[in-house]
């Protein structure tokens, strides 16, 4: 597997974990905007889901890589939809 493919797989897996946990969500009106739900418990769930995915062999590579991917997804998600905010 190429490094680029591995990085893409990690990003997608990190996003999946964060979405499943409710740590992030797409804007209901603007599906391309990913928003941070600002929920520390959901963030913790995302990391737990990621840990379980690695243990179950659903994601290859070190656990820390996937945890970093989850953190990146959460950290780079918008604090709110800029389009919805501008419409107010």
Largest sheet: 2 strands, antiparallel
Roughly how much helix do the residues carry, as a percent range? 55-70%
State the order of secondary-structure elements, H for helix, E for strand: HEEHHH
Strand order in the sheet with the most strands = 1-2
What is the name of the CATH architecture?
Answer: Orthogonal Bundle
CATH T-level fold name:
Arc Repressor Mutant, subunit A
Overall body shape: globular
- Give the averaged pLDDT, no decimals: 94
Strand content: 5-15%
In total, the number of strands is: 2
Number of helices: 4
Structure commentary:
The protein has 88 residues and is mainly α. It has one domain (3-86): Arc Repressor Mutant, subunit A, CATH 1.10.10. It is built from four helices and two strands, in the order αββααα. It has helices at residues 3-21, 40-55, 63-76, 82-86; strands at 24-26, 34-36. Helix 1 (3-21) packs across helix 2. The longest helix is centred in the first third of the chain and has 19 residues, at 3-21. The radius of gyration is 14 Å and the shape is globular.
């Amino acid at each position: 597997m190429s490094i680029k493919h591995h990085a893409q797989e990690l990003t997608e897996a990190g996003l999946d974990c964060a979405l499943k946990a409710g740590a992030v969500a797409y804007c209901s009106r603007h599906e391309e905007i990913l928003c941070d739900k600002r929920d520390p418990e959901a963030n913790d769930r995302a990391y737990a889901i990621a840990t379980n995915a690695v243990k179950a062999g659903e994601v290859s590579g070190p656990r820390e890589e996937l945890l970093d991917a989850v953190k990146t997804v959460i950290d780079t998600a918008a604090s709110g939809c800029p389009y919805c905010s501008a419409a107010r």
